[in-house]
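Please check this chain.
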Amino acid sequence: MYGFRKPFTVATYDGSEFFGIGFKTLIVSVQIIGYMISKFIGIKVISEMPPHRRAVALLGLIGIAEIGLAVFGLLPRPVNVIGLFVNGLALGMVFGLVLGFLEGRRLTEALVAGLCASFILADGVTKSVGKTVLDWGVAEDWMPFVTGLIFVLPLLAFVWLLSKVPPPDDDDIAARSERHEMTSEERWSLFQKYGLGLSMVVAIFLLVTIIRSVRADFAVELWSGLGTKPNAKIFTQSEMLVALGITLVNGLAVLIRNNRLAFFMSLGICGLGLLVIAMSLFVQQQGEMDPFHFMVLIGFGLYLPYVAVHTTVFERLLAMTRERGNLGFLMYVADAMGYLGYVGVMFAKDIVSTSEGFLGFFMTFCWFTVGVSVVCLAIAWRYFQLQGAQALAPEAVEVAAETR
């Protein structure tokens, strides 16, 4: 999927500006608007998607995304932004469809950590492929479409493999609860029941999503602001290290059988990530860290909470409460809010015109995120602690399951 979504961001589109906005900022923002709208649509679609329709839906959505890239290449600027809007609108529901194959299993954290590692690494790898396609002499507006073609055959093969994944077995259901398609009433009831705690988690996810997305979509500008001219390899090298660290930390949650303990451990991982971000910012601003290590550590810090929410926070919340629902619904509420915030930041970002100024903007927003997120994390932790003797009482069901 990332082969159809991210390669265009490696181009700089120097000298192009429309409506007082740089062309790259414009197309990134338009794609993200489509992606954000898709997340809001996905709250309903993903939570109601029957398992037997997921594979066909995956292929259909990514096919539409590639058509959008063809439109981006065919039409003149700035009208061709329509193509990237279509691309984002189609791709926004892909993650939820894949996640549906993996949730509700004793190995869910390991599987989803691997999935998240794949998109961390894919962010760098597909940029490297896109840079290589540009080096072949392909025009910037056609590069995304050509890069997408490279990924068509692997896409078909891996979607076929996903379609062969068996559903959770009885032991999975006993350990993690059965997952169901949800009605609108069930969605509203679940969120309302745990409203304050979920809102705090979503707020953290929103802020981290903004930083993570800025780092991904404007990596070229950040590297330049740090005094490094990026080459095709550096994107893959930096993201490979981040992916390995994130997979190790978040994937180990699968070893914790007690759902309540794993849930609070995942909140602790979020706190660890915020600490890594703060330390990376402080050391870099003291001039004691080189650009490569800074980009790796800031990526590791922000992906810790980002991936913990994907792998463990919502998964174990459903498992310990035994509430009727699915992971896709909770993730799409968080994703929708995260990308809504990112759209706003994209337009605010263009106030800063130089790469050096943009780096300062990025680092200031990182500090803001750390401060606000620490407060939200403390509230969420306390809220779910207080819920322990009431709303989370069904943990007793899990204890019985573990003794089987």
